[in-house]
Amino acid sequence: MALLKEIVGAVRNLRSEMNISPARKAAILIRAEGRDADVLREQRDLITLLGRGESLEVGPQVRKPDVTASAVVRNHEIFLPLTGLIDVEVELKRLQKEYDRVLKEFDNSRRKLQNDDFLGKAKTDVVEREREKFETLGTTKEKLERNLEVLKR
Length: 153
What we know:
The chain is α+β, with helices and mostly antiparallel strands. The protein has two domains: 2-81, no CATH class; 88-152, Helix Hairpins. The protein has helices at residues 2-17, 34-42, 44-50, 88-114, 116-121, 124-152; strands spanning 26-31, 53-59, 68-73, 76-81. α4 runs antiparallel to α6 (124-152). 20% of the residues are buried.
């Protein structure tokens, strides 16, 4: 059951990251083998229902289509083909705008943390919050870079 929960969670995260409307059903492709593949095939209806899928293909032969969001869960690759689900140009512009905003904040935060005056004069909790903000922005920046890369193919 934990595997199913992780798979559905990954599919939902991909949908959210790529701004796919909950009303749009998507093909779900999972490259998996062995017992896990059997379990996923047995639970096809549940995965497609909870992942808002129109179909589910599972097996070691599954290939990654072009313009595909992907994730890895327990060494199983999950692919969500984006063609026909989103307007790639609109999504590229949206992601680029968000990336530019996050990059600016990331650079500002990095400059603060490299500034000896800030580090010496600011309270410990303020410096710690800035470090946490910097880490969060770095993670967000990496996700946006990956998503932009997927759409630019």
